[in-house]
Amino acid sequence: MKKAKQVFFLLFLALFFTGATCSKVSPAKPNTAEQNKVDDKKKDAENTLDKMDRNKDLNNIQVSSLAQGVNYTLNQVTNPTPPVKTAISLNDRIIAIVGAPNLDESKRIKSIVDLLNSSIEEEKKKGATLLEDKDKEISKLQKEKDKLTLEYDEQMWELAEQAREAAEKADAKQQTIDAMGGMFGLNAVIWGLKKFFFSTLTILIVFLIIFIILRLLSTINPIAGAAFSIFNMLGSLVISMFKGLTPKAFELCNLVSSSDKDEYKEPLFKIVDVIQEFKIKTEENPDKVYTVLDILNKLDRDMDKPEKDFIDKILKELKWLK
User: Fold this and answer.
1) Is the CB of residue 121 less than 8 Å from the CB of residue 127?
2) Is 319 in a helix, a strand, or coil?
3) What is the pLDDT of residue 12?
4) What is the C-alpha to C-alpha distance for residues 241 and 286, in angstroms, rounded to an integer?
5) What is the dihedral of CA 141, 146, 151, 152, to 10 degrees?
6) How many beta carbons lie within 10 A of that of residue 67, not counting itself?
7) How far apart are CA 279 and CA 52, in angstroms?
8) How far does Cα 36 stand from its chain's mean position?
9) pLDDT grade for 158, boundaries at 50, 70 and 90
């Protein structure tokens, strides 16, 4: 028997320390809402970066197109001088760096060069107009580049701020979790009970304020009265629950249901009405004598069967009937 007690005691200690060891609270996971905000900022920055890459490609096409236009112009020189040859060589390297333009851009720049180099004044004007259009395209791309650069810088700053806030909240939550893990996890229980108490108290205070306001307004405003009917329904539901759980409580509080009240009310009203009727008859005709039997006969004619059964029930309770 003594050995069995020792085994039981050792088993209890083992379970206790195992529970204490396993009562660690798991590390705080990143807040889903905060992480979603960070991810959204990342996506916005990535989209802006993609737009910047496309803008850069379009700018390179414009540079390559102009470089090819220069080459096309210089190649038309019949006896190129060394500087002309050098310019052609440098332009070839520019094209090699930024890439060759597509066929449409190549045809377009050659067409502009031919018009600008034409001896006909009208064609020169047309070429100048087309070159101005190209300047507008380049200007538009440069403005878009500046705008995207500024937008990207702002998004990266916002992303850094969002990540910093998310990290601070995660650290604060981890500190709270670490604090709740103390005393074998009892700190978490105490924290939860306090939170539940104050949350419930706040809800009750708000509920009470709304109840009082609607109760006061229900006497003067039909809309408020209709709204207050919700509280009547809730109250009836709560009372029904308490009545089902504690059926004797209503008797102890001298409360009765409407059906029980009506069961007593109808026969009592008829009895009082008949007595009052015979009283008036006696006052009108003092010589006429009415007996209790007359009153009972009148009641027997006025009452229906459920009311008579109810009277018999009372008589049985009073031991006048068996």
Assistant:
1) no
2) coil
3) 44
4) 56
5) 90
6) 22
7) 106
8) 14
9) confident
**For 290, which DSSP code?**
-
pLDDT digit string (tens) for 264-293? 788 888 888 888 888 888 888 888 888 888
Distance of CA 123 to the CA centre of its chain: 66
List b or e across 78-104, with b for residues whose CB sees 16 or more CB atoms inside 10 angstroms: eeeeeeeeebbeebeeebeebeebeee
Look at residue 34 in the predicted model and tell me its pLDDT.
72
- This prediction has a pTM of 0.42
Enter the tokens of residue 71.
């080459």
Q: Indicate if the alpha-carbon torsion angle 277, 282, 284, 289 is positive or negative.
A: positive
What CA–CA distance (Å, rounded) separates 214 from 308? 44
For residues 128 and 134, what is the distance between their CA atoms, to the nearest angstrom?
Answer: 10
Element (H, E) at 101: none
Residues whose CB falls within 8 Å of the CB of residue 112, separated by 6 or more in sequence, listed in order: 69, 127, 130, 131, 134
Q: How far is CA 289 from CA 176, 221, 275, in A?
A: 91, 56, 14
Residue 110: both structure tokens together: 């050659």
